Amino acid sequence: MGTQSQPPSMLAKRAGFIFCIIGCLFFFCMPSQAHAMVAGAQYSHSDPTANAHLASGEPPVAVQVWFTERIEPRFSQVEVYNQQDKRVDRHDSGVGSDGASVRVSLLAGLPDGGYRVVYHNVSQADGHAVMGSFSFEVGGSKAPTSASGPSSQNPGDDNDFDIWEVGVRWLNYLGLAGLVGGLLFWLLIWRPVVDASIEYVGPESRQVRQVMMLRSSSFLFWSWLIVSFGSIAYLFYQASVDSGTMPWAIFANQTLANVAFKSRFGVVWFFRLILLLVAFIIWLAGRRAIHERRYRLNELWGLLLLVSIAIMCTTSLISHAAGRQDLWFMIPSDIVHMLAASFWVGELLMAGFILPLALRQFKPGTADRSRVLLALIPRFSLFTIICIVVLIITGTVEATALLKPFSQLWTSSYGQTLLVKLGLFILLLALGIYHQLRIGSRLSIAGPGQGGRVDAASLSGEKLQRRLQTLLRSEAILGICLLVSVGFLTSLSPAPVVSPPISRAAVYKGTVSGLQYTLTLSPARPGRNFIEVGLKDHYSQPVRTTYTVSVHATMLDIDTGVQDIALQPVKGSPGLYRTTSANFVTAGNWQLTITIHRSGSTDLKNTFIIALGY
């Protein structure tokens, strides 16, 4: 037929080989443990602990809350309220040296009663804001509920998107699909085919090439403009989220400046802005080369592709993947996922809307359009298969990591949106299979006549190629809808793992030989209990020397023997020791003795009595 297309069997072998390579890379590199992740810096633990019961007359001097991720210092704070909804802290809330905790000092001489801690933070990783609260009590008073006083939202709520965030994220994905996918279509599909088949088509081929270059460059410009507009809108949106104010209020109190210049998001955003400016300069050089008819676009568009992929990487740096412990794997996986999706959607946009404008330059009835399409279809199908394989693998990995348990796929807003995205993906895949098996095969039969002559089969092929172009436009529109679902998906928090309510805890503090200790016993009831001991020096700093810490428990009401409970140091948390093996067999009065064994020195001990109820 005058084309140099690959036979289907060869394409199938290549696609299968690529499938095996990609599968091996992802599944052998996949982490052995996948940590469930919720968007934002969630509550980890605190001092005092949530629902703690402190001894009468011993209120804490400060409250410190630790979170699961590093947080933005300028947009994270903690406030403490009493039962009358009056603040009892010193308004000196600040982020700790670890970057993942907030500490606030309390007023001196607080009376017995219930107190409520309200926290608000912004994650450095993905920019999500989290607000929540917990209570503790001093003495026998009832702690205030988290619903009293200033309003707070559930930090685990997964239905937290707004239409502005969905819009700016969709603009970002749509623009990147146009940039990355359009460039890949030009470099990997269009140019190789048109260069190989130029001698087999009519004299209009040069005009076709020129129109394709002009239309493609305009397509790339509008894609760049969409990404740029979306990036600016994203900055305004993030400033609104960080400050907790309406969008029109971000210009007050230097909120916008603080987000842009003094946050991790701002650093990534400025790097993205620089890349966008570089991309525009390269595009200008390419546009000039087109008008001067200096055909060196491969080099310029290749360089523009690398810059566009770098812009795509900045999106992953402020996504859900950046907030995971195994980000070394999830961020590359997220980038590969976006790259495959952008290639697929971008090539559909180019094939559905830009390619027909160029092919119109061929004279009707010469079958030149069908020749070019027949040469394009095998390469188009091959790269589509690769994109689908990559999307299935990376999508499965990310869904498995984010949805725990798997039932959240249909019980959470995040999982339900993922199902919608999956449905659009399957529909798009079905349309692709249809145009490949039905339209493509019929087009090859009703293609150009032998020797390039015009006959009835050639005229039938012209009708089929117009039908194919209509089908490609439909797929491109469906791809745009798919990106809308991605905008919804990335604006939602992955559903949290539902945990049972935090039980009542007993907290005891003391000092022995200048060493401060805090013992937490939860749920402070007969049976298995969680025991934690925190050690600090006389400067109230965690003790970094590792000691051997144990608790000896003796029942005073009846003889049940002595329990020797060994505590294990917590990795990455100096001065913190925990165990969950303590088993208090009955209710009543128990004598607890904390023993701190120091190598080369005498053991430190302190004893007190607690009452465990039913």
Automatic annotation (TrEMBL):
The keyword ATP-binding does not apply. Residues 514-594 form the YtkA-like domain. It is a multi-pass membrane protein. Residues 375-489 form the Copper resistance protein D domain. The keyword Cell membrane applies. It is found in: Cell membrane. Residues 43-138 form the CopC domain. Keywords: Cell membrane, Copper, Membrane, Metal-binding, Signal, Transmembrane, Transmembrane helix. The chain crosses the membrane at residues 170-190, 219-237, 266-285, 297-318, 338-359, 371-393, 413-434, 476-495. InterPro entries: CopC/D (IPR032694), CopC_dom (IPR007348), Cu-R_CopD_dom (IPR008457), Cu-Rt/internalin_Ig-like (IPR014755), Ig_E-set (IPR014756), YtkA-like_dom (IPR032693). Pfam families: CopC, CopD, YtkA. Residues 1-36 form the signal peptide. PANTHER family: INNER MEMBRANE PROTEIN YEBZ. This is Copper transporter. It comes from Dictyobacter halimunensis.
